[in-house]
Write a structure and sequence with these properties.
Length: about 130
């Protein structure tokens, strides 16, 4: 689960993945890590920018491997918001703070009807229902 750290304007979560998510025998598959980063940035659009949005474009940089069975942390934040798009960043780091993977993504902002269709439910003005 993701938490919204209001003072830092970040969304964060800790996670540990097992061999079901391996690429190489002792590393987490890069595609799984991209999914973690994308999910964190998507929650940042909801919790921080208070908008529903979908990924338009993502770039990433892998600095260090993410090992299986070890705890890591993902953080995501907002760089820029305008009417049609949101620019986000995220990183996955080890407990010692060394960054393993960084990502940048641009999200396309959804209208309320599109957001409701994506969420499978009507969405009111209070987004807190979706932010834990």
């Amino acid at each position: 689960p993701f938490s919204h750290v209001v003072d830092d304007e970040r969304v964060t979560a800790t996670f540990t993945l097992d061999e079901r998510f391996s690429g190489a025998p002792t590393y987490v598959h890069g595609g799984v890590l991209l999914a973690v980063l994308d999910e964190a940035m998507a929650w940042a659009t909801i919790a921080i920018a208070e908008k529903f949005a979908v990924t338009r474009e993502t770039t990433s940089r892998f600095e260090r491997p993410v090992r299986l069975h070890r705890q890591h942390r993902v953080d995501a934040w907002i760089d820029r918001v305008d009417e049609a798009s949101i620019s986000t960043r995220a990183c996955i780091a080890r407990p010692d703070g060394k960054v393993c993977v960084e990502a940048h993504a641009t999200f396309a902002v959804l209208g309320m009807e599109q957001a409701g269709e994506a969420a499978g439910a009507a969405i009111g003005d209070d987004l807190q229902t979706f932010v834990r």
